[in-house]
Every structure is written in C-alpha cells, then in structure tokens.
Amino acid sequence: MASRSAGPAGSGSGAPEDAYTAEPFLPGGRAGLPGLREAAAGCRGCPLHRDATRTVFGAGNAHARVLLLGEQPGDQEDRQGRPFVGPAGKVLTRALDEAGIDPDDTYVTNAVKHFKFEVVPERGKRRIHKAPNLREMTACKPWLDAELRVVDPEIIVVLGATAGKALLGSSFRVTEQRGMLLPFEGRGESVLATIHPSAVLRADDREAAYEGLVSDLRIAARAIG
Questions:
Q1: Residue 74 class from Cβ within 10 Å (0-12 exposed, 13-18 middle, 19+ buried)?
Q2: DSSP SS3 for 71
Q3: Which of 45, 131, 204, 205 is the most exposed place for a label (fewest CB within 10 A)?
Q4: In angstroms, rounded to a whole number, what is the distance separating the alpha carbons of residues 17 and 28?
Q5: Region Disordered: which residues (predicted)?
Q6: CA 37, CA 53: separation in Å to the nearest integer?
Q7: Domains and CATH numbers, the chain
Q8: pLDDT digits 0-9 by tens, 75-115
Q9: Cα(27)–Cα(141) distance, rounded to whole angstroms?
C-alpha cells in the first residue's frame, strides 16, 4: 500500500503507514451516534477507504445492553451501507433470537469500518474478503472507542478472532477464550468471545457450529438477565 497522510485528504504530510489513524476525523466534543456516523462517512484515516464503496458505521439501539463487534463489512454491507445485512447477518439475527436476545435491542458494529477485499478475475471478478491487518485495526480503533462511549453496553460480544484482537490485543485467541466472560479494561462492561457467524457458513458441520454460536450467546443473555 502506498503511504499517504493520516490527516484529512489533501494534507500531504507523507506520514508512514503505521501512523495512520482515524483520530483527526472524529468530531469534537462528545458527539452522539448520528454525529459520529456523519463524520465517519468522510474518514480517510487509512488506505482502505480508497477501494471501498463507503464507510459502514455501526447500527442499532443506541442504548443497547449488548454490543456485537464483528471484523469488517462484507460485500453486501459495503454496497448497502449497514453492518451485518449479508448472509452472516441473517445467521447472527437468528442465533440472537434463539439465544433469547432481541436483535432489535442490540447495537452491531465492526472493528474496521471499510471493506477490505481483492478482486479475483477467475471467479467472475468477485470481491473476496481479506482480513484487516493490525495497522488498519489500530487506525480504526478511535471510532470503536467512541461507539463504546456512547452506547455504554453491559456486555460486548466479540465475533471472531479479528474482533477480539482489535478489542483485547494481539494475544487474544478465540479458540481459547470463547464462551468466557472477560473483564474489559477495568470498565463496567464484560466481554464475551464467540465465533463469527460467517464461520458457521464455512463450517463442514454447519449445525454444530451454529449450535455453538447460540450456546455462547445464551451466556450473554444470562449475564444481562
């Protein structure tokens, strides 16, 4: 990736790639979700904005007790501008309902707000998901921090390894920590790790993977009473 400034477009400071950050694009003061969403639409804090269609900010109940954190938008999310509207989102909505969590009472977002992909000509020029790297997750973290401040959930459910690392650090391992209620930075929230719903769609045994996701979400449901 070519280097560009971490600041607003056109600043031309030539900052190194590891200096990318969304911080200069956040609105001043203690903006609510509408203000954050509007500001995020113009974010140029890392190179991912260049190829993505739009910023995909979080959505849902602004006072949700449960915040669901995924990795990044997918193809359908990038096209529609809302998180979890593709096949994985349908799996998540069904699993939440089955676990006893009203999907309408949650807030859903991603650690990275732009779709990272590669185009594969031999697959009909389909846009194929690529996992964001640590620099990209770090650059986007100010948006997540702002969302957490505003929503102030009781529990954060991290969906998959990338979301867990974005929130809890590079030592996080979803295979070791899934289904466990973990403390979060000395704050009131707890963190629960589980698989990303897209893992259900990729699994050889989809039924077993889905039941595992529901089982983890039931822990979150019990935690909030």
A1: buried
A2: coil
A3: 204
A4: 25
A5: 1-26
A6: 15
A7: 17-223 (3.40.470.10)
A8: 999 999 999 999 999 999 999 999 999 999 999 999 999 99
A9: 15
